[in-house]
């Protein structure tokens, strides 16, 4: 932890440098000195093609190029343009029409959505609950608002979702505080690639309902990778369960355009609220707009208009879906190859189903990652293992990595 | 104040609807039903031409159109692209080369810059100090982070900047807390159009230095309208004084591309730090990047690349400057006409020098604004008067407004 000289610490654990950025810099440096073919940079949370180039969907790029000055230069309303709000809901729910109140407020990517959820559904010093394997910024976002992140073990001994662990930890926290925000990252969980099964979803919802009796419990689903979990309809099969759940608690969903529309750098997403209460829906809009006004004011207009145009034009929407499917299939092939190879060489991985990331549990993640770096393989060490971004490496690399990782881990 | 049903209040005063947005909606409605020529919408904080159309600089639009997919779709680094950081500093300082450490961290517009300044240079429940006429979001931003906004009267009885009031209030607050962030919005102060004179700047700095002895006092200059205060070099004449001041305290500057580059809806700005301490400069970068990561992650890349390209190409920069000058001259003419007319009809205004806004003090601002609305004149009622956006009305309207305002005020 960096000790402050002049700035106010405010209980935050502030690192000198963003960890992933530091690793990625070393990877780039090595590629420059020793040659690109000597380096596997498995740290990048963006979808790259087999030449290491960022994929930008040409169907989306064409819409970007059609924007008029008013469509990017003008302020969007604080909560998002009306067209975007509708398009974001359609994009999240697709064919499913939830029979509840649904509100969407625009945010700068998924990060902004999570930020606003924490700001409005937790209080100062509250604990927020998520899985022990988690996307590191959850902790950063919580600390910035002087909240704390607490975790439960994501998998039970059989490698299934640990609903019992969730129940215990939620009950324990709710003895000390009156409200609780629970963050579940699914499908294509970052960093493990796990996705809850329908049965697990059912159990999780019943568990949260039970834990939340007499308390204010909110469920936040981080669905940033929903379009990279196989068939887009199937990957949304949990949504009707949320419709049922939202009669008992507000259900929030962090929806992001970063990956699904390859619009990472345009900063667009939405926090969506499902609730059976008209008042809670209205309040959601009011408090989220207040938080937005106080953090980034309005959100970039260009990506909002892009999504609106896509959903206004069925042919264009079809093009986007087709193009995305190609890239998703490429990503899925990489994952399949990695899993096959891991099984062949006897590398134990966490139960990966889909998405940008896979994780390998190991004893000394920092040391394991360092050993791999010596071989030109750059991964991200987490608390309990290392994360590999299938999104940023080739199928060929996916074939050779498991053996190299096993060797590094076994060496410790 | 809205009472919460389910969400957490967290000490915030959350209105049902954004006030300015509500007024602007009524203006649009009236224009639709009674005709555009019956309505003067003096609420909009964006520069419109005499036909009420948003001005987007063609020189900037050409750069927007030249962007490659990588230049908008890729994530920018958390703190901004290296090119943007350099360009933002050049854009703020121009010919002046400060002899101190200068760091810039990208933010979504000026709002994000102010948000990060508050997050890192104040603590929970701290008071933040600004003038009694202030841009309303300061309070929203402070409350969202569970800080409080306190004010001192901006003008003394002679209509000059009230340095004495600043001194007294700062001393009073610093009896109760160990750090203080002071926000000064200048030049072209929103909402009065005031700008500190060099002598006033000198006094203000000496005052803050004196008040800050043994305490951690930070000065934040909100310079969102710096390019609309007459000659761009002259409007920067206070910067060398900040170089001197920053040996005693960190000086932060909120720099925005929204108005200067007509890139409102792209959300781009920077928080810039001037300090004589290498450690404080380094710490500034570290804490601001942490805050950014935790709020919006990275900032939109497109406007960062646009500013970089403009500063890489002297001919292009010249085009932008020339185009901006035309629009600034248009805005200044509107202000001159309003002032002349106000003097002629005997309307007392606050000492306006330049910028997007002018303010008229009055007894019952809400009622005055309502009376004006009956005549189709839409203004923003503040605590102590009404605000008129010269940026969004024609020169002709500037000529007719003072008489109408005087009539409304005198009627109460």
User: What is the global morphology of chain A?
Assistant: globular
Radius of gyration of chain A: 21 Å
* Percentage of residues assigned to helices of chain A: 40-55%
* Biggest beta sheet summary of chain A: 7 strands, mixed
Question: Helix count of chain A, per DSSP?
Answer: 14
Q: Which range does the strand content of chain A fall in?
A: 5-15%
Order of helices and strands of chain A: HEHHHEHEHEHEHEHEEHHHEHEEEH
The mean pLDDT of chain A is: 96
Largest interface, C-beta within 8 A: A-B, 76 and 76 residues
CA distance, first residue to last residue of chain A: 26 Å
Annotation, overall tally of beta strands of chain A: 12
As residue ranges, the low-confidence spans of chain A are none
Order of strands, main sheet of chain A, comes to 2-8-7-6-5-3-4
General description of the model:
- Two copies of one chain form a homodimer.
- By secondary structure, the first copy, chain A, is α/β, with parallel strands linked by helices.
- In chain A, 44% of the residues lie in helices and 15% in strands.
- Chain A contains 14 helices and twelve strands.
- Chain A has helices at residues 19-34, 58-65, 69-73, 82-93, 109-121, 137-144, 163-174, 198-211, 239-245, 278-293, 301-312, 314-345, 365-374, 395-410, and strands at 40-41, 101-107, 127-131, 148-152, 179-185, 216-222, 251-256, 269-275, 357-361, 377-378, 380-381, 385-389.
- A seven-stranded mixed beta sheet of chain A has the order 2-8-7-6-5-3-4, with helices on both faces. A three-stranded antiparallel beta sheet of chain A has the order 9-12-11. A two-stranded parallel sheet of chain A has the order 1-10.
- The longest helix of chain A has 32 residues, at 314-345.
- The radius of gyration of chain A is 21 Å and the shape is globular.
- Chain A starts with 18 loop residues before the first helix and ends with a helix.
- The model of chain A has no long low-confidence stretch (mean pLDDT 96).
- At the A-B interface, helix 2, helix 3, helix 5, helix 6 and helix 10 of A face helix 2, helix 3, helix 5, helix 6 and helix 10 of B.
């Amino acid at each position: 932890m960096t000790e402050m000289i002049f700035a106010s610490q405010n209980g935050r654990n502030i690192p000198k440098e963003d960890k992933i950025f530091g690793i990625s810099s070393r990877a780039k440096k090595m590629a420059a000195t020793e040659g690109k073919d000597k380096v596997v940079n498995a740290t990048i949370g963006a979808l790259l093609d087999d030449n290491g180039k960022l994929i930008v969907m040409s169907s989306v790029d064409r819409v970007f190029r059609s924007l008029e000055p008013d469509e990017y230069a003008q302020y969007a309303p604080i909560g998002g343009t009306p067209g975007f709000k509708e398009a974001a809901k359609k994009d999240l729910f697709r064919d499913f029409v939830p029979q509840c109140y649904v509100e969407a407020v625009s945010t700068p990517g998924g990060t902004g959505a999570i930020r606003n959820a924490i700001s409005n559904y937790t209080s100062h010093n509250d604990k927020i609950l998520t899985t022990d394997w988690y996307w590191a910024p959850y902790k950063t976002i919580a600390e910035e608002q002087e909240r704390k992140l607490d975790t439960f073990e994501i998998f039970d001994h059989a490698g299934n979702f640990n609903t019992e662990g969730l129940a215990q930890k939620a009950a324990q926290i709710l003895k000390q505080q009156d409200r609780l925000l629970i963050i579940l990252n699914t499908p294509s969980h970052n960093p493990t690639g796990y996705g809850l099964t329908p049965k697990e979803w059912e159990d999780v919802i019943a568990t949260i309902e039970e834990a939340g009796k007499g308390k204010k419990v909110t469920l936040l689903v981080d669905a940033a990778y929903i379009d990279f979990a196989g068939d887009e309809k199937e990957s949304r099969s949990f949504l009707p369960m949320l419709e049922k759940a939202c009669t008992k608690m507000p259900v929030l969903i962090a929806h992001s355009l970063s990956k699904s529309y390859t619009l990472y750098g345009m900063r667009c997403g939405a926090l969506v609220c499902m609730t059976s209460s008209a008042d809670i829906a209205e309040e959601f809009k009011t408090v989220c707009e207040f938080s937005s006004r106080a953090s980034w004011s309005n959100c970039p207009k260009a990506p909002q208009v892009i999504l609106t145009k896509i959903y206004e034009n069925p042919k264009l929407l079809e093009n986007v879906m087709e193009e995305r499917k190609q890239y998703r299939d490429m990503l899925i092939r990489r994952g399949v190859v990695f899993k096959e190879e891991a099984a062949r060489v006897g590398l134990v991985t966490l139960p990966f189903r889909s998405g940008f990331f896979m994780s390998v549990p190991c004893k000394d993640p920092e040391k394991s990652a360092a050993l791999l770096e010596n071989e030109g393989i750059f991964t991200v060490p987490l608390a309990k293992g290392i994360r590999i971004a299938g999104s940023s490496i080739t199928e060929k690399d996916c074939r050779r990595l498991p053996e190299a990782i096993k060797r590094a881990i076994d060496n410790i």
